[in-house]
Amino acid sequence: MTDPTTPLVRLSPVLPILARLTFAAVLLQYFWSSALTKMGNGVFGLFSPSLGAYAQIFPRQMEAVGYDASQLGVLHWAVVVAGMWAEFLLPALIVVGLLTRLSALGMIGFIAVQSLTDLYGHGAIEHAETLGAWFDKTPDALILDQRAFWVYLLLTLVVMGGGVLSLDRVVFRNATSARPASPQPAP
């Protein structure tokens, strides 16, 4: 049994809140700004992505069709729209702490796809300084270094949830706990 006075046990309610606060301070604006570049014009911009959205997500296919998005199929449209919505919704859900574990897991998947698109779609794999290397003297490579920290932050939320100050706590407070009941001592 763990001693409830150990520092880790005392810090455990604070860690998810700090992780969500760090995410909001460091990555929320990054993802929302990126999503805004994908929106089309007008009221229906959430359903009609910009040309840049297609070029960001499908760079080689866009080059092949002369940057005419109308030549791409409905699957391309669906992926671009889903990516744009994910960049708006998942960070917002993480910050308010609603469906935190699922949202953080979705963001990890998003970052993996984003990284692969940067490496292979945009050719960053050919630039060692962009890819970076672990266990070297420079901690500022875009892909391996920075995104490792992003994923680690999000893994904290996948494992620990949104914390005591989250909408998860409010909305699901009456839900059955996923934790098994403590064994009761025999009489």
TrEMBL record:
Descriptive protein name: DoxX
A single GO cellular-component term on record: membrane
Keywords: Membrane, Transmembrane, Transmembrane helix
The organism's place on the tree of life at top rank: Bacteria
Residues passing through the membrane, by range: 14-32, 39-57, 77-99, 149-167
